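A protein record in our archive is deliberately plain, so that people and models can read it alike. The record that follows is passed on verbatim for readers who wish to inspect the format.
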Amino acid sequence: MAINDAGRCVSADIAAGVSPAAALFHSLSDETRLRIVRRLARGEARVVDLTTELGLAQSTVSKHLACLRDCGLVDYRAEGRQSFYALTRPELMDLLASAEHLLSATGHTVTLRPAP
């Protein structure tokens, strides 16, 4: 589901007994993946769009998209030779909204969702 410190996907850890909840939160614990999620909340994008908008290498974006796909949070549709990535779970925005409120209440105001 998410890439752990050893560089492998957490789905292997789930098979070894890590709870799916821990794996989900681990997948969202990376700043790059949060940036990708925030961008995809505004609408679908290609890898090239994400690399340009986020200032990241193609390999970095692809690696994190694969992680988010393993979690079931992101998927893509093919159009010709291009792939358009989008969020699959709109309730993820509710989770991020709750995290924003919680962090604000603890004195750490952040913006995890795109402006409406």
